[in-house]
Automatic annotation (TrEMBL):
The keyword Metal-binding does not apply. Residues 4-252 form the ABC transporter domain. GO terms for cellular component: ATP-binding cassette (ABC) transporter complex, substrate-binding subunit-containing. The keyword Membrane applies. The chain holds residues 1 to 256 of 384 of the full protein. Coiled coil: none annotated. Keywords: ATP-binding, Cell membrane, Membrane, Nucleotide-binding, Translocase, Transport. This is Glycerol-3-phosphate ABC transporter ATP-binding protein. GO terms for biological process: carbohydrate transport.
Amino acid sequence: MAGLSINSITKRFGETEVLRDVTLDIADAEFVSLVGPSGCGKSTLLRIIAGLEDPTGGEIAIDGEAVTGMRAADRNLSMVFQSYALYPHLTVAENIAVPLRMRSLSAGQRLPVIGPFLPGSKDKRAEITAAVKDAAEMLEIGALLDRKPGQLSGGQRQRVALGRALVRSPAAFLLDEPLSNLDAKLRVQTRAEIAQLHRRLNATFIYVTHDQVEAMTMSDRIAVMMDGEILQCDSPSIIYEDPNDIRVAEFIGSPK
Ligand code: ADP
Ligand code: MG
């Protein structure tokens, strides 16, 4: 597990400055929510941390080691998207196994797009099968391993996406509005399960949401972002009771 340092990150898309000097240190095993209105730069920041996008300036470090320029696959971070991003033609077990299969490939080798699969030795295959089973059981989808994503509910699909994130034992989890496609009841349930996962794994989480209530209930700290800047990053109670900016108070709904 790992601490993350985000150091003076800027990002431009053409003329548009989407991130302006974003600095944030996240401790090992901390749960930090990143909140702010749509378009403020949350996903862009997460993608830069994950290595899916290059910053225009600044540095990202994981456990003190600069990773700027390092490929996403080498950063040992797991990202979970709102859209789940599962492979429709693969089973649940095969979807969860994808990161482990990727890891077992040698440099330059490509993963065959269509399964049946599991390259490498018999031992390696047994190891992957066991890891997939463990992750699936932790998320209570152990009975669904042979199904295809099309045969699952939205909540079950999101668990498969979480399983795929979990299976590689990442240094940190980056979640981008993972619950926003779920209905209200399922959202509350899955929110509790993510919080439980955080406690069990003792892992570092960055959790992007535009839902203040979600952030207030789950986080060690909340970073409030607006127009490409982090206005404040503090515990939920400080953010709520002592916002340092009128825009923070308005967004969180503080009595100020
Ligand atoms: P959020 O996740 O907070 O809703 P985003 O990080 O997705 O915000 O987007 C921040 C801003 O950057 C938006 O104005 C968006 O239109 C812009 N943006 C994001 N990705 C690109 C891109 N690839 N090219 C141009 N503009 C982009
Ligand atoms: Mg977004």
